Amino acid sequence: MKVTVKYFAVCHEMLDRSEEVMELPEGATVRTILKRLEEEWPEIAEFYEVMQMSVNWEYATEDTELTEDDEVALIPPVTGGTDV
Amino acid sequence: MFKITSEVITGEEVRDAVETPDAGAVVLFFGTVRNNTGGRATKYLEYEAYPPMAEKKMSEISEEIAEKWGIDRVAMIHRVGKLEIGEVSVAVAVASPHRKDGFKACEYAMNRLKQIVPIWKREVWADGEAEWVKPDAVFFEQPEKGE
Fold first, then answer.
1. Residue B114 to residue A8, Cβ atoms within 8 A
2. Lateral strand order in the sheet of B88-96
């Protein structure tokens, strides 16, 4: 199945792309994507603890199962708004 | 109205969105780009967002406010791209029958926005360095990209 994976902020810069389509095996979860990204960017594993993932615009866990055409995103710690 | 924009925020858009005859108060909050963080001079800020999810999460925050205070007139807009010192990065408007709940709901909206809305800030310092900001510390240090 094919899913779209989006990268923002620091992930966008480190991976040098803002999104891609990944071909994944049936039964794949968010973890499948993270493992694949680790091969390209080993340091990313250090940030999994602070990073969140989303599937179809909703926060998800590593165990969230994926289906065809899902939109997955890596969400670094959010820092919108102001520091007041 | 829940919106990510690359346009200048004037406040009129959120103010107009919450207008209602049964309001006795409209609380309007602007977040602006400060010229320093912890004393270190800031040159400008860059904001990036995941627009569809950000707008969905803003809408969820308004549902939380409706549950807590019975207020159903909330609007939020956040700007993305390069923002100069003094410019408005975010505006929140809350219309309520009485001011007390309006103030509380507006502060709540900002606090929640900073927790769950996928928007990121990159601080470009006056000395030329730049970094993606994370809630309590620096996420990564990176050289500034050529301007």
1. no
2. B2-5, B73-79, B88-96, B25-32
Q: Is B91's pLDDT higher than 60? A: yes
Q: Which of A6, A10, A80 sits opposite B132 (nearest CB)?
A: A10
Domain CATH code at residue B79:
3.90.1170.40
What residues does each domain of chain A span? 2-75
Q: What is the pLDDT of residue A41?
A: 84
Q: How confident is the model at residue B136 (pLDDT cuts 50, 70, 90)?
A: low
The reply to whether residue B120 touches residue A57, judged by beta carbons under 8 angstroms, is no
CB-CB neighbours of B140 under 10 Å:
15
B21 contacts: CB under 8 Å, gap ≥ 6? none
Domain A2-75 - what CATH class? alpha beta
| pLDDT at residue A81 in the model | 77
Chain A residues 16-45 with a CB less than 8 Å from chain B:
none
Handedness of CA A68, A12, B9, B117 (dihedral sign): positive
Q: What is the mean pLDDT of residues B21-27?
A: 95
What is the ipTM metric for this complex? Answer: 0.92
Asked if the Cβ–Cβ distance from B133 to A79 is below 8 Å, we say: yes
